[in-house]
Design a protein that fits this description.
The structure is a single chain. The protein has helices spanning about 40-50, 65-75, 80-100, 120-130, 140-155, 195-210, 225-235, 240-255, 315-325, 350-359, and strands at about 1-5, 20, 30-35, 55, 110-115, 130-135, 160-165, 185, 215-220, 265-270, 275-285, 290, 295-300, 305-310, 330-335, 340-345. The protein has about 350 residues and is of the alpha/beta class. It has 2 domains: about 30-35 and about 80-225 and about 310-359, Vaccinia Virus protein VP39 (Rossmann fold, 3-Layer(aba) Sandwich), CATH 3.40.50.150; about 40-75 and about 225-310, no CATH class. Strands 3-7-6-5-8-9-16-15 form an 8-stranded mixed beta sheet, sandwiched between helices. Helix 3 (about 80-100) packs parallel to helix 4 (about 120-130). The chain is globular and about 65 Å long. Bound molecules: N,N,N-trimethyl-histidine. The site of N,N,N-trimethyl-histidine (AVJ) has 12 residues, from helix 8 and strand 14.
Amino acid sequence: MIVPLEGPTAPAQSTEWPVQFEVPQLDGPELVDLLPAMADMERLVIEGLSRHPRQLPAWFLYDAEGSQLFERIGEQPEYSLTRNETKLLAERAGEMAQALGQGLGQQPVLVEFGAGNLRKVGPLLETLRPAAYVALDISADHLAPACRALQERHPAIPVLGICCDYANIDQLPPHPLLEGRPRVGFYPGSSLGNFDPTEARGLLAHFAQLLGPGSRLLIGIDQPREAARLEAAYDDAAGVSAAFAFNLLHRLNRELAGNFDPAAFRYQAHWEAAASRIAMALVSRRDQMVDLAGQRWSFRAGEPLITEYSVKYTPEAFLALAAEAGWCSLGRWSDAADELSLHLLAQPELSRSQADLRA
Ligand code: AVJ
């Protein structure tokens, strides 16, 4: 089935949607592929490697192998974030759904950003009972089977998967399921921590734009705690976190004609208190040259190649950042040890005069 994109709800502004998109014939979830542009991958890698310290884009970690390794990180005893957030959602979803839906006037559409394996949203779907559930993710390979499995578990809620880079689309694509309904966002996993605070504020403002006036956002945020425990969480004894970082070198070698020798690097996770973040890096064991993307890159002995930052926010620091992006706080749930929070945020409704201007 081909769904034409032109229509009364087509976006009035800049995004150039493909003229039409394919919806596979499925007895269940619909899938839309906005074909996220991987073309500038090389440009982004070169730009990151030219920085001091050298750094790679964090989303680059999530190829098929990396996504599997990340799931295994979530099973390591040292890495409690995934377990604790999933538990918190399971236990308090009723309250969260009530607060999310309160006063919206009609059943909202629930939009998850970077949805991955879709294993966290179940309790919210059951309690919020949204008019539809929309999952955005960069990897079509992951999204399609995850949407199918979710649709089977929740046959009464229409599921729509959209393959896209959620940080780089101007609007959600026009779709009957999205028409004329309030939207509530879901962004678990503390992925905001992978962006630096300035980018993070921009992303929060961007979510406000995608969700619209009067929208709400339930977002998971990991908090600072003891350095030793954080460093262990990001450098587990079984070596899965290290393998996750090393997988980047394999991907670079494969996809950007590189010749990284993994044995010439060691993995390190270091808590940088001043920036309230874990810095994950592959540290060069010796002076060396590496070829990548048609250029030669030098690494000195001891020089880090940052694979990822994970910024930790206290509730106060996070809410200050969110406020700068126009979000106000409606509530917060935290785990027993108060190490992570699910924050419920709201955007103001359009004021009367703004609404008149729009009409
Ligand atoms: C994807 C942001 C949840 O920073 O905790 C975990 C990624 N990297 N271990 C995090 C990650 C290494 C993770 N998040």
